[in-house]
Design brief:
Length: about 450
Amino acid sequence: MANSSRAPGRSRRLRAALVVSAAVGLLATAGAVVLPGSASAASTLGASAAERGRYFGTAVAVSRLNDSAYTTILNREFNQVTAENEMKIDALQPNQGQFNYGNADRLVQHARSQGMLVRGHTLAWHSQQPGWMQNMSGTTLRNAMLNHVTQVATHFRGQIEWWDVVNEAFADGGSGARRDSNLQRTGNDWIEAAFRAARQADPNADLCYNDYNIDNWSDAKTQAVYRMVQDFKSRGVPIDCVGLQSHFTGGSNYPSNYRTTLSSFAALGVDVHITELDIRNAPSDAYRNVVNDCLAVARCKGITVWGIRDSDSWRSSENPLLFNGSGQKKPAYDAVLAALNNGTTPPTGNPTTPPPTGNPTTPPPGGGCTATVTPGQVWGDRYNTSVTVSGASTWSVVVAITPPQRISSTWSGSPTWDSSGNVMTMRSNGSGNTFGFTTMMNGNSSARPQIRSCTAG
Ligand code: G3I
């Protein structure tokens, strides 16, 4: 039996069961007014999802990062990104042995500067292969595919939370068969070989199988992917998650059994992700249902929409996204945000974390503003904190973390870090006066963030 174990890491910790602390104690935090209880309704998708222990992300086209209207929405609303095209095989290895990481690295750097998690998309796929790979077959192709997986996962090691290791390997229709492709013709074990290579190259990334039209529990394709994941789990093939792309169109609507699909995959012992959500004409009901279904399944880790504005969409004529071409919020946006804010909290499990005790320290000298800390939700492995600044509309707040605790994601601000990674300077970025962040405990469940200063301007 193959060994699927790996060192505990960032992703492994994120996958730990969600445990809600019954009570969050009063924190005493340097220089800050500290309020008990959880934050009030969040005003952005990422912040609201984070309060539910999830992410809310978007596909990003790197070429659009020069469009300030685009990046303003991206930085304000989302705490996870997927490269729409820049991490595909043809983009990363246009000629055999010649890797081109420029655009993908740019996206990763942007995401990290904003505290966003990155989903890698995708290591092995029948589509978007460079010409040299399309012309290969047999052992030569198998080895080239495995080399690509190894090289790319190694290059991005430590920066990718989840990899779509294999994308779209099953056929449409009622056959339940694998899709015919040059990769499939190298042997039925090509998928598990790709997962094993990915695990070896980046033991701390979560490894996902990603596909479309696996949303309806009754569909043969959904059942076929389910059986593959079940088989992989039983044989120790290293798979951690399934991505449901969820491109809902006229021909493939949001199915009423979607929640059953999510929970059925989760029951196999994998996380589920909604990875490429867009819905023809963006009906609020369908968007709301997707959010509620994800919130109802503890192992549903988050939702990624496939683009920001309708004009950014791969099927822009269907207006399937949450922002219109002018960057204004559509009714579906309001429905999603309300569903996230009203959503059920993650289910209570075995509490493993005592309420935080805090670290009282002396308030710092005034810098023209005040930072008020509100403790957020606490899980077994991590906790949220939000900070509200008063007295200034532009500001920077310095927050120190006690290692081995580590901030894993932030929202509604622009963070920079000192060289130790333990001190974060959060600057206002136009998304209001409240920012937030998630801290991984890494074995220290009592320490809490210290506000070192709040400086106006
Ligand atoms: O950038 C070039 C441009 O220079 C050139 O002039 C133009 C001419 O066709 O092509 C441009 O590249 C296009 C690229 O999108 C960027 O716009 C490619 O042709 C086009 O094939 C590519 O389409 C992408 C598609 O995947 C194929 O890889 C879409 O943007 C992208 O949204 C879509 O995403 C996929 C997921 O990866 C997997 N699931 C389905 C989803 C939707 O098809």
